[in-house]
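call fold(seq) -> tokens
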Amino acid sequence: MSLTDYLSYIILPVLALAVCLIFYRFLKGPSIADKIISLDLLITTGIGIIAVYSIIHGRSTFLDTAMILALIAFLSTVAFSYYIEKRNRKK
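ret:
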């Protein structure tokens, strides 16, 4: 079994299942924090899918897109934690 077969037949289906489970948690999350965390995890899983796709097809340009997506996800998580902190100080 080559690396391409392993990535195509094992890793990508596992990541697809993870996306389905995370999206379910996003829809059913009772609080806004649960939804933000699941959205961050969804973006992280998407980065993994982009990385696997980049390895399978041998195109490193997709990794630039994954890096930009990772930076946006990090900044959104930091902004949300700042918002939560400010909201808790007002109470």
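The two ends are 58 Å apart (CA to CA).
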